Each structure stands twice: as C-alpha cells, then as structure tokens.
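Final report, closing paragraph on structural work. Over the funding period we assembled a curated collection of sequence-structure pairs, and we close with a single example.
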Amino acid sequence: MADVQDGAVTRDLPLRGSNADAESFDIVATYHRLLKEDPDLTMPMAAIEALIEFLGHSQVKTVYETIDLVKTQSEKLQAAVRNPIALSHGTDLFSQYLIMSLKQPASSSGSNGSNNSKSSPAPQPPLDNPHESFEVVRQHLLRNSRLFATRAKNARERIAVNGRKHLHDDTTILTMGGSRVVGNLLGRAAQKHDYGWYTDPPRQFRVLYAVDPALAAESEAVVASLRGQGVPVATVPFTALAYAMATVDKVVVGAEAVTANGGIISSMGTYSLAVLAKASRKPFYVAAEQHKFGKTFPVDEFDFSFDQGVINFYSDNTKEGKDKKVTMPDPIDFTPPELIEAFFADHKVLTPDEVAKEVIDMLM
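Its predicted structure, as stored:
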C-alpha cells in the first residue's frame, strides 16, 4: 500500500527495532537508543519515534486500546527521566495527533489526496464502519505516523528559510549554548538560497558566541561549523555579556521547550541573557520547532516538577561535602514571553501571543 501526501508517495516504512511484542517492549531503552543513534534527534522527536516503534510492535485491536496504551507508555517514559518537560511535549503532541487521526473520516472518493494542514495526516478509514478491519486502520496510522515524524525532523530546514529574512547584512548576532537549530539557521543564512524563481544571496553577518563552560563541546562544534562556512565568529564568556551587548544587533537562541504562554524553557543562563537584551533594547528571538510547543505553564524559575539541586545552603563545610545534592547535568531556566520578540518556527514566524494561541488550538 502507498499513501500520497503533499505530492509525495510513501511506502510501508520499516520501523526501527526488534521483534519483541508490546508486553516486553522497553519504551525507555528505545528512547535512549534513538537519541544515541541519531545525535540530531531532539528529545520530543525521540519520544515520538519511540511511541511509533511501540505501535509497530503492539497487537492492539481497538481504537481505545491504542490510545490507552500510548498514554501508559508515555507516562512510563516521562517517569524515567529527571527532566520530562521537552519529552512530554512530544508525547502530548503525538497523542493528540493519534486522536485526531483515528477520528478523521475517510474522503468521499476514498483517495488519500493531499492535505495542506500543518499537522493533519491524510484522511483515515472510518472507525464507525463495522466491516472495516482495525488492522487496516493501524497500518494506515503507522504509515502516516512515520510521515509525521519525518516532517517534524525536517523542521530545521524550514526554520532556516523562515528565519533568514530576519538576519541582515552587516549585523552582529549574539547566541549561546549548543542549539542545533540555531547553528543550522545561521549556517544556512550564510549560504545562498535558490527558490527556483529567485536566488537569495548569502547574508554577510557576524556571530558573537557566549560560551557556557557546561556546554563547551556543543558550543565548540557550532563555532567551528560556522567558521568553516566563512562566518566571522567571536567567543566571549558569560561574564563579558553586558560589556559585549553594545556591539550586538539582535539575539537568537534555541529552546528545549516552548511553554503554553509563549515563553521558553532552555539551558540555564538564557533568562539572564534575555533580561540583559531587554535592558539593552536588543530584540531577542527564539528558533524552535513546532513539536517543542506544549502545555507546560511555569510561573517562575522554580515552578518545575523536579528539583534541579542548584541552590543548597549549608553552615557546615564538612556536611556540604557529604550531603550536597546532585545538580542536574543540564540545568534549565524559564524565559517569560514578555522578553521574547518573536519565534522562528518551521511553519512561520510567530509572536509569543500567537504561539500561546497555537498551543491552545493544538491541545483542544
């Protein structure tokens, strides 16, 4: 069987993994394996792909069983990691996608036709038809789930197209961390882009890279890649950001997760950078894939479901050495929407208010 979607034909796509049945399927091990196998895979996408692989191994017979098992596996996956925020955004999005897909009626012609919705699959076989085999529905769902995952993984290229119009010649762009989507955006902007009817020349800009010692390896990789593409890059420590901000035209960062109110959760230090940018009247942009949007709604830096172990008070030096909490290896902070100018997403450029509206629409 084949599906036609946006002019492309997709065959029955092989699912990664072994032949274990659903009862013995280890969703946590699968998630970590996928991240290890593909360094470019985001946490939400690894969660989505793990759930797709689970569905490929399961022997579900009904719609309700499918949804219930996906919910159970999602909860198991979220409980197995210390910081489940980004991962939960992926599982929530996929669950909503499943519900929408399983409820969508077939087209009157019976063809799969093209569908221009940003997240909708091709029309599905009707579930209220007693003569329709659920296995047909399940296989159709799996094919379209793989297509859904492929599209989400291609989001960085679409962000590069949408964001390049905001990167102008003879400007200095400040960034930080090891965001792959930001690295790709800046690298693509330094290249010409051929639209077929028009060739957009390379942007001539400079990059000021704030180096976080905790993300040294990722930062060095991005800096080396940009310099290899001819982009002038200067590195500065976080302690020099206030001094360096006077030379900056705009700030562009990535995000681990985009919250329901149009804020972001990202590596610790992002909030400080956003505050500094606001005080210096420099626009602060976020490059983030749509699959990172979710219902998380923190009210401050401490409104997470886990303790990061960053602040611990002791009056005894010896006790601190024995009892000190373990700090999360990748601590995070929350940057509120009022500090963000706009989002470079894979489908368009959005204000924080527009992001909040999209999250509500996605999760209704």
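The first strand starts at residue 2 and ends at 5. Residues 2-153 form a domain with the Four Helix Bundle (Hemerythrin (Met), subunit A) fold (CATH 1.20.120). We thank the funder for supporting this effort.
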